[in-house]
Amino acid sequence: MDENKAPTVPYVYVHDTGAVHDALPVKVVSSCNLNIYTFPFDIQNCSLTFNSYIYYNEIQILLGRSAEEITMNSKTVMTTMGEWELLDITAKKLENDDLTGFYTDQLTFHVRVRRRATMYVMNLLLPSCFLITVDLFSFLLPPQNIDRSSFKMTLILGYTVFLLIMNDLLPVTGNIIPLIVFFSLCLALMVASLLETILITNLLCNSADFSPVPGWIKVLVLLQELRSLSSVLRAIRSQMEQQQQQKEKQSSEDWIQVGFIIDRLLFGLYIVFISISFITIIIIWVNSYNQ
């Protein structure tokens, strides 16, 4: 806490009862430990304790106004709160049961403030959600006709540049917070999507040269049950029947179907991740504003 920077007031209030009231303003700058685990939806509780370090029971510290009145007056004075919004101020006086008399009165104020999350939602969360949603819809592009990899690589580069630019908005901390985990998972899903696209392209172009699909892979991806559900694979099967022998055709179409099933599984994973992320963000935001 810095020193008192308030100007001196050389006046006192003298009442008709003989009481003398000396009001000394105090202007200090204090610091507060922040718990940023729920950033940018965090609510901080800062405490200010007033007591005497020289005199013991000779000085009594009393609360002149109620905590509700202090909160209302503080909200009126704080016309520009910037990043933080004042929620309430509570006061608590320390009860001393020391019979020796060597104790000091203590009065503690707890100030609760809430971070205004709109700027962080607009600049951090929404762009991330939009980019990963665009990557999700890229699964609708037919891999046999369109090069998905170039499109996905562009998204990854754009998302990386976005994280570098927005790095100044993130709090500097050595602890892991959910927002950083969310960004890391988004980037990991994009990279996994690109690797899966490379695998699909390789299967489409070179599946004729591969050995037959092992039995455990057929069981893993439910190859036999899903074979009749894909019209795309039936078209590929009819084309390959005209160009290759039956044995080569069967091995090739099996590998292609393995690739398409992996594509569907990652598409489903994308949908689950985006749904859970959106619901979690909305719940945290609503709960923070209801407190």
What does this structure look like?
The chain is mainly α. It folds into 2 domains: 13-116, Neurotransmitter-gated ion-channel ligand-binding domain (Acetylcholine Binding Protein, Chain: A); 119-290, no CATH class. 50% of the residues lie in helices and 11% in strands. It is built from 8 helices and 5 strands, in the order E-E-E-H-E-E-H-H-H-H-H-H-H. It has helices at residues 67-77, 118-137, 148-165, 178-206, 215-220, 223-226, 231-243, 246-290; strands at residues 13-14, 20-21, 43-51, 84-93, 106-115. Helix 2 runs parallel beside helix 4 and helix 2 (118-137) packs antiparallel against helix 8 (246-290). The longest helix is centred in the last third of the chain and has 45 residues, at 246-290.
Determine the fraction of residues in helical runs and give it as a percent range. 40-55%
Overall shape: it is rod-shaped
Using only C-alpha atoms, the radius of gyration works out to 33 Å
Helix vs. strand class: mainly alpha
Topology order in helix (H) and strand (E) letters: EEEHEEHHHHHHH
Number of helices: 8
Mean pLDDT across all amino acids: 76
Main β-sheet, spatial strand arrangement: 3-5-4
Q: Regions with pLDDT < 50 over 5+ consecutive residues? A: none
Largest sheet: 3 strands, antiparallel
Q: Give the termini separation.
A: 29 Å
Number-wise, the strands total 5
